[in-house]
TrEMBL record:
InterPro entries: Acyl_CoA_acyltransferase, GNAT_dom. The lineage of its organism: Bacteria, Bacillati, Bacillota, Bacilli, Lactobacillales. Transmembrane segments: none annotated. It holds the Pfam family Acetyltransf_1. Signal peptide: none annotated. This is Ribosomal protein S18 acetylase RimI-like enzyme. Residues 4-164 form the N-acetyltransferase domain.
Length: 213
């Protein structure tokens, strides 16, 4: 096994390894079909490493370094140069073999060479990851909760199928509403109501009925 900088020829294997690693972790909902590009409006530099064997990615680690103005106003630890732990994943068949630690040792050498003053790591519950970060010398500075669900005081809604218009209709207290939220995703009934959102991703759903004689 060797640790090298990421190159585009490994992208498909990179995506597979991240997806498989996250599938059985608290980050099961963090899936993508391609490797993310670094946002140069936010970050000035990147450390992007992969552990490779027989042209297959066994592990990956991505750390981005914030632009100076963002670093200096960073709420968790203001400094002239702050880095953000973007991705860490090891293929399930190769976990508990020290690959993550080997990636981090090399990445940390690069962080020091780039004079990074602080590394921010965000994670969720999971003994393996939290143990690693503590082992690597990171300290918890804040805790919060991500909740997918419905507030208890939120009023219910009704929906019906308008067959003549081939769409759904949502209503609350007898009045039609343009959308509702289901497990953190807003469901919109008509295309024109997409203008009510700043959209990161939108999926077009269709419902078919097969009628048998």
């Amino acid at each position: 096994m060797k640790i090298i900088p990421f190159s585009s020829e490994y992208e498909k294997s990179w995506v597979y390894t991240k997806a498989l690693s996250h599938l059985f972790s608290p980050f099961f909902d963090d899936m993508s079909r391609e490797k993310e590009e670094m946002n140069t409006d936010v970050y000035q530099d990147q450390i992007d490493l992969i552990a490779v064997e027989d042209d297959q990615v066994l592990g990956l680690l991505t750390i981005n370094i914030y632009q100076e103005d963002i670093s200096q106003t960073y709420r968790y630890h203001p400094a002239n140069k702050v880095a953000y732990f973007e991705n860490l994943a090891v293929h399930p068949d190769h976990q508990n073999m020290g690959i993550a630690s080997q990636l981090f040792v090399q990445a940390e050498q690069a962080l020091m060479a780039k004079e990074v003053e602080a590394l921010a790591i965000f994670t969720r519950d999971g003994d393996a990851a939290n143990h690693l970060y503590q082992k690597w010398g990171a300290t918890v500075v804040a805790e919060d909760f991500l909740v997918v669900g419905t507030p208890k005081d939120q009023e219910g809604f009704q929906f019906e199928v308008l067959l003549d218009e081939k769409r759904l209709k949502f209503s609350r207290d007898g009045h039609e509403i343009p959308y509702y939220q289901r497990e953190g995703v807003y469901i919109v009934s008509q295309k024109e109501n997409l203008d009510l959102f700043d959209i990161e991703q939108v999926y077009h759903e269709r419902t078919y009925i097969k009628v048998y004689p």
